[in-house]
């Protein structure tokens, strides 16, 4: 244990970004092909419109999601994963696999080791 290194600042920033409440669920909805606000809201039960808007703005600011507005009647807004956002899919799928093995759901039997 002599080779203990401080955790990289990038690691902390990445964990804070993808670990923010609802963010993983929103990204998983986008991995499943949901592009419109209403589709994303339906794919993330319990999220409010305000929180979904806030998270999508953060994801856009961080370069994980792009937002496209189509001037139609009514105006159409679609969100798409950028290359940076798509690169998170195997990461989040690994977290899903890990959670199925190790994280018990309240009221259910613990996962088998």
UniProtKB/TrEMBL annotation:
<dbReference type="InterPro" id="IPR036388">
    <property type="entry name" value="WH-like_DNA-bd_sf"/>
</dbReference>
<dbReference type="Pfam" id="PF01638">
    <property type="entry name" value="HxlR"/>
</dbReference>
<feature type="domain" description="HTH hxlR-type">
    <location>
        <begin position="8"/>
        <end position="107"/>
    </location>
</feature>
<dbReference type="InterPro" id="IPR036390">
    <property type="entry name" value="WH_DNA-bd_sf"/>
</dbReference>
<dbReference type="InterPro" id="IPR002577">
    <property type="entry name" value="HTH_HxlR"/>
</dbReference>
<keyword id="KW-0805">Transcription regulation</keyword>
<protein>
    <submittedName>
        <fullName>Helix-turn-helix transcriptional regulator</fullName>
    </submittedName>
</protein>
<keyword id="KW-0804">Transcription</keyword>
<keyword id="KW-0238">DNA-binding</keyword>
């Amino acid at each position: 244990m002599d080779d203990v290194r401080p955790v990289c600042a990038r690691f902390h920033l990445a964990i804070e970004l993808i670990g923010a409440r609802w963010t993983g669920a929103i990204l998983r909805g986008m991995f499943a092909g949901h592009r419109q606000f209403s589709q994303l809201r339906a794919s993330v039960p319990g999220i409010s419109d305000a929180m979904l808007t806030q998270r999508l703005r953060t994801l856009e600011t961080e370069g994980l999601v792009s937002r496209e507005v189509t001037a139609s009647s009514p105006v159409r807004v679609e969100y798409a994963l950028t290359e940076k956002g798509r690169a998170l899919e195997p990461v989040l799928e690994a977290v899903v696999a890990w959670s199925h093995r190790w994280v018990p759901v309240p009221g259910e039997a613990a996962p088998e080791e």
